[in-house]
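check this one:
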Amino acid sequence: MKIGIVCYPTFGGSGVLATELGKALAEKGHEIHFITYQQPVRLNGFHANIFYHEVRVPTYPLFDFPPYELALASTMVDVILNHDLDLIHAHYAIPHASAAYTAKQIVKQKTGRSVPVITTLHGTDITLVGRDKTYEPVVTFSINESDSITAVSENLKEETYKHFDIKKEIEVIHNFVDVHRYNKKPVSAFRQVIAPNNERIIIHASNFRKIKRIDNVMDIFKNIHAALPSKLLMVGDGPERPLAEDLTRQYGLEADVRFLGKQEQMEEILAVSDVFLLPSEYESFGLAALEAMAASTVVISSDAGGLNEININGVTGYTSPVGDVEGMSKNAIELLKDETKLKTFKQNALKEAKLFDIHHIIPKYEALYRKYCRTGDC
C-alpha cells in the first residue's frame, strides 16, 4: 500500500507514534510518505520505502499568522496525485484531520477518486485544544468526515464521545512500543557515571508542560532523596524547565539532579533507571511510561486518563490520585528500599509492556487500512 502519514514531527507522543508506525510499515514493504513541516525527529537513517515531503508555508506581510493548514492541504493534494496514495492517515485532530478533509475534496474534484482518510486521536487534541470553542466545530466536523477514527486508549475514546458530537464508531488501537529496542542490558559504566556510589536512579521524561506537573516531580524526588541516596534524570525540555531548575536550587539538590535536554536514544538512559516518575494531570495513554516499562523500569504515576490501562497498580508500579505527592513518594521509597520487590516489579513491567509490542499492534493498523484499500491493490 501507498500510505500518507500526516503528523507533528516533534518529540511529543503523537509524532513519535506516527513516525514509528510509518517505519514499521515500511519494513513490511509498504510505501510511506510523511507529510509535515520538518523531518520527524524519529525519522533517522535511509529506507527505500520512506519518503518525506516538507510543507512549505509562504509568508506575506498580509498574514500575521501564516496559514499552515492550507499549505498542508495543498501539499497533501500534490503528494496524493503525484504518488498515487491509497489513503491518508492523519495523526492528531488539529489541524491534520481538517486539512486531510480539504485535500480529499480537492482530489475528488480533480480526479473523481475519493481518497480514504483515517484519523487517529492522541490526547490533548481532544481533551484540551479541541474543546476550545474556537476549534470545536471544525474538530467535530473533520472527525465525523473521516472514513475511520481510532483512539490510542479506551479513556480517550470515552472522552471524545463525552465532549464531542461524534456520529461514528471509534476503534481503539493502543499505542505501541518496540520492546526489542528498549529491552537493553544496562551499561554498567554508564550507570557508574550517573550514580558512582550506587545511588538509585529516578527518571522523568516529557515536554515539560504544566500538564506534566513538573513541580510534583521535583517534590517527589525531594522526598525520595531525603529517604535514600538517589539521583534524578530530567529528560526533555519545555516551558516548565526553569521551574524545575529553580526548585532544584531551592531544595539544594543541584549535585543530584541532571537536566539532559531532549534525547533520541532513550533506551540507554531508561536501561540504567530504577523508577520512572509521571505524575501528570492527564495522559491519554502514557507512551513515555510504556517505553520505560519496556526497559524494565518501574512506573510511579498518577491514575489520570489512560495510565491505568498500562501501569497496573501494585504490579508494574503504583498509581495515585493527581497531586498526591505524599502517596507517590511513599510508594517509590518503599519499592526502592526493597530490592526483591523492585526486581519483581521490573519483571512485571517488562511483561506488561510486551502486550503492547509493536508486532501485536501494527497488524491492527494494516487490517484497518485494507478495509479502504482499492480493489486489487493490497
The mean pLDDT is 92.
